[in-house]
Design goal:
The structure is a single chain. This protein has 432 residues and is of the alpha/beta class. The protein has 13 helices and 16 strands. The protein has three domains: 3-160, Rossmann fold, CATH 3.40.50.300; 176-349, P-loop containing nucleotide triphosphate hydrolases (Rossmann fold, 3-Layer(aba) Sandwich), CATH 3.40.50; 354-430, K homology (KH) domain (GMP Synthetase, Chain A, domain 3), CATH 3.30.300.20. Helix 13 (403-417) links the parallel strand 15 and strand 16. The structure holds guanosine-5'-diphosphate (GDP).
């Protein structure tokens, strides 16, 4: 989701305009805690498009003076945002301060828009033209007070944002897509048969038309699911040696086509390299995950102890995934799969609002600041969940965050917000 940074000196009506753009009725800034006090991030929505609006602080002179503070804010805006909105008081015109910031912004590779605020009536329009002198393109007249011009301004903002990747999965994209994966002989076809048999409803072998015929529609727990690429499973093509590579390609394609994977592991055998390879494919593809230990009917006390150790040793990186111990033969716990899939997908779909995310983060970072590196303490400016499916958090910082600290953030993030069954990605955008 793209980021818009709003910059402006005090008294130009920036807060009022921000409220306008966010569609709030009250002209009072309801304080959403930011990671640092002088900068707050909000979720904004216009014409069905979501973006993050970052209100950078007013340009109060700091220790180095007003000019330095202005330049620093403008630099920050440039480095963290996809577009910058400079708010100017049209009645006052461009002051030295705005000229200084315009100098910085003109060097920016990001698109910059100029809002000429306080154009409350026709008379004000003539003031707007003088703002061409900033060299930032056509100034757009707005009245934050009355709301005029704010729609046009938002249209212009959306226009200058870079194209974001289209959502791959529509919100109502039909049945949720499941990949049933695992090494050969782990029990994939047996489980699929069990699922379709037990649940009394048939596997719809969808011929041709709208659904790809290699998929199966399966009703589980009152809901229809689409198991992707099950044709190979049902045909039981016995593969000759040398075809493992193709089997692996096929697994990969199924995972890519799915939203959630059921990773089958043979509970009766030691965890193998092959198991871990499939697991890596799921994690790297960023899909939701349910781990099903199959053939549980063969597991005795000894094997169970061994298995616990394997899990501790090999599956720590997917600690967030739920495990279900099933038997395709006896039908044990097979009914648990559907609710587990639902939980995983719910997490995978979740988006934490920016205000809540930053409120949580500011408290956490205040108590546990990032480790100092090269004599400098990296500051976390703000965070936004740029995406769901899988949940992706972008942290805007002033410096590199160590892997250990990033893992710490992810752990705490999961403790607070859950995300059972879904990978969470944390990416860091460092302001140079
Ligand atoms: P696939 O290659 O992953 O599709 O595996 P299959 O479904 O063909 O199963 C491989 C073998 O494991 C078959 O002989 C199945 O009967 C057996 N099998 C599958 N699930 C179970 C289970 O839960 N318990 C036991 N004991 N055997 C199973």
């Amino acid at each position: 989701q793209p980021v818009l940074a709003v910059v402006g000196r005090p008294n130009v009506g920036k807060s009022t305009l921000v409220n306008r753009l966010l569609g709030r009725r009250e002209a009072v800034v309801q304080d959403v805690p930011g990671v640092t006090r002088d900068r707050v991030a909000y979720d904004a929505l216009w014409n069905g498009r979501r973006f993050t609006l970052v209100d950078t602080g007013g340009w109060e002179p700091d220790a180095k003076g007003l000019q330095a503070s202005v330049a620093a804010q403008a630099e920050l805006a440039m480095h963290t945002a996809d577009a910058v909105l400079l708010v100017v008081d049209a009645r006052v015109g461009a002051t030295e301060t705005e000229e200084a910031v315009a100098r910085v912004l003109r060097r920016s590779k990001r698109p910059v828009l100029v809002a000429a605020n306080k154009v409350d009536d026709q008379r004000g329009v003539s003031d707007v033209h003088s703002l061409w002198s900033l060299g930032l393109g056509e100034p757009m007249p707005v009245s934050a007070l009355h709301g005029s011009g704010s729609g046009d301004l938002l249209d212009a903002v959306l226009d200058v944002f870079p194209e974001t990747p289209r959502e791959i999965f529509g919100a109502t994209g039909g049945p949720r897509r499941v990949a049933l994966v695992g090494k050969p002989n782990v029990g994939k076809s047996s489980l699929l048969n069990k699922l379709t048999g037990e649940e009394r409803s048939v596997v719809h072998d969808v011929a041709g038309t709208t659904v790809d015929p290699v998929d199966s529609l399966v009703e589980l727990d009152g809901e229809v699911w689409r198991f992707v690429d099950t044709a190979g499973l049902r045909k039981r093509v016995k593969t000759a040696s040398g075809t493992e590579y193709y089997a692996s390609l096929r697994t990969k394609a199924a995972i890519e086509a799915a939203e959630v994977a059921i990773m089958l592991i043979d509970a009766s055998e030691p965890l193998s390299e092959q198991d871990l390879r499939v697991l890596t494919m799921v994690v790297e593809a960023g899909r939701a995950l349910v781990i099903a230990y199959n053939k549980w009917d063969l597991v005795d006390e000894d094997r169970r102890h061994q298995l616990e150790k394997e899990i501790d040793r090999e599956l720590v990186r997917v600690r967030w995934a739920e495990r279900v111990n099933v038997s395709a033969r006896t039908g044990r716990a097979v009914a648990k799969l559907a609710p587990t899939l639902r939980t995983a997908l719910e997490s995978w779909d979740t988006r934490i609002p920016t205000g809540r995310l930053n409120g949580w983060l500011s408290d956490l970072v205040a108590a546990n600041p990032p480790p100092v590196r090269g004599g400098r303490q990296p500051k976390i400016l703000f965070a936004t969940q740029a995406q769901s499916r899988p949940p992706t958090i972008v942290l805007f910082t002033t410096g590199f965050l160590e892997a250990g600290y990033r893992r710490f953030l992810e752990r705490k993030f999961r403790e607070t917000f859950g995300f059972v069954g879904s990978p969470v990605r944390i990416s860091v955008r460092v302001r140079e």
